[in-house]
Amino acid sequence: MRARMKAAFQVRTASSHAVRICLAATFFLLAPSVRAENLQCSLIALAATRTPGPINTEDLIRIRDFGGAGLGARSEPFVLSPDRRTVALQLRQADPSSDTYCTALLIVPTAGTGNPIVLDDGGEVIAATSSRYGISGLPLGIPKQAIIRWSRDGRFLAYTKFFSDRSEIWIHDVARHISSRKLVSDVDIERLAWSVDGARLLYESRPGLTSARKAITTEGLSGFRFDGRFWPLSSDIPMPSADIPLVARAIDPSSGAQKTLQQADRAALYPDADRPARSTAFARLGHITAWSAPSDDGLFSQGRLHVQAGPNAVPCTYEACSGIANLWWVSREVLAFQRRAGIDGSVTQFYAWRPGHGRPRLLLATTDALFGCREGGEEIICAQETSVSPRHLVTVSVRDGSRRVIFDPNPEYPAAEAGIVRRLEWANTAGVKTYGDLVLPRQYRGDRRLPLVIVQYESRGFLRGGTGDEYPIQALAAHGFAVLSFNRTPWQPKADHLVDEEEYVRLSMEGFADRRNILSSLTAIIGQLDRDGVIDPARVAITGQSDGAVTATFALANTRLFSAAILSTCCEGEAMLQQSGESYEDFYVRMGYPASHAAGKEFWRIGSLADADKAKPVPLLIQAASSEFRMGLATYRELKRRGWPIELYVYPDEGHMKLHPAHRLAIYNRNIDWLEHQFKLLGSAKR
Is 546 a catalytic residue? Predict the structure, then answer.
């Protein structure tokens, strides 16, 4: 995607020409002498223009985001400086009116006092790709995440910028307030690190992609033989192989000139290589180490906490010592750690423990999502999302678990206008527990039954738009809907042996066990909300993207619960395998999908909406990406010919997740308008 990165408060350059940098002037300072590359944004702070009232789609689309997509460790929302006094992060904000993003590289004081400083723009917001099924370059669609790395002495900050035709490495001199470009690459920079002595900046990329792409172009002169390299959904030429190797290189931080890699540089690029086997969290302080690792290679084996003080092992047999996601030595005596607890990890907990001195002490237990955490002395610094508040930075005290906000990039976001949020927990007919969040109109008093919209398939953190961010939860609630943010029901096979990922998928497909498990949970909660008098069971819509769309179509094919549906991706069926290429089809056949047309009749009668001839016709809206809409054409044709009220919209230049700001806003608004029309609502709020 060719969206230019821009910015939103005014500063003056030496030529007195006004430029704009991504954030409100009321709480940001610009580092002097910075000459950024993409500063053409005309955004202004929403606080100055927003009309008081319920949360609307404009509020949601213009939220300032930082870090990668999702709430896991890979998101890396920020990078802590060596002296722990500041964090660096890259901010982005969408402007649907110009179909662009602004970006800014920020330094934020961890003390929570003083102003964050804008060092530079962050390049363009580019859609990430993925490697799977043996091929690379598959259109994923989420923003490609910048890599930011402090030098060991904290004097320099190295970071990447991405553009539609290149990747770049930049270095900011903290003392001199100067940013300069050091490297331009025609392939992605995938890893970045400083050498131990600070004399070299190390990076990894796949230069072999360049020659692979040239070879494909040459091959096309005599025609391509169709094989597993093709991804027909989005391309009529083969994709490069996924096994093109990463190559490590080094440059001089001052000049950008290539330098020779040293033997120790491998350890700098991969600092976790010396961790214990299978460890998922690790911390070392002198001769004392702590780590969490599962006892075996099984997919569902829980990690256990291990502490080693020289030759002595210190066991931790308490329940709190399992499922640990992160840990830190905050002193030579105290280990702090973070774990997930509750139903399917719905609760985040922090503990402090003195190994060998009793049980761990609970500091904090919350349904808020805290992630990307780093140790900052007597506090743990984390990115946090609550159900009603977008991503921000907080600290957690290792003494008493108290939290304080150190950076909120969206002070004008009207969280106080949010709808009523109720965390629900329940079990399905098999006794499997799951959870979700019911969001109701802010003024709802239980005086009427509401139409229900189900949004999938993760309900941790900020309730924005579900997985894929296409169903604006708070805006839907403001328009009079009850919205169930549904967390996908966990499923575990009944197996008496260790199960790896591929076997897990195969077992989940036997009798559609996984989908039936999810559908049982949805049936249970819809029935409960009906019995409670909250919803109108005749007006229940299901929505979904990716795996959520598979759940939605399976539900439409096998129940009569739903009176409308919206899909962001469509649809499971034999034509899906044909349209997606040989590598994709081979993978799914290994996972239990039928290998031929003759073998698939009964399978697709249950698993495909197009083949479910007894399915109840309901209004169906499909909002598909240009890279995936062909997957749903057979279903669209079949249902339309059978008289289903079906609409299909295609969004150009989009991957698995939609990224263009204009598209995202159009999707938000169309979903609300369409649901209002189907359920004959007048709408209780205006966008």
Answer: yes
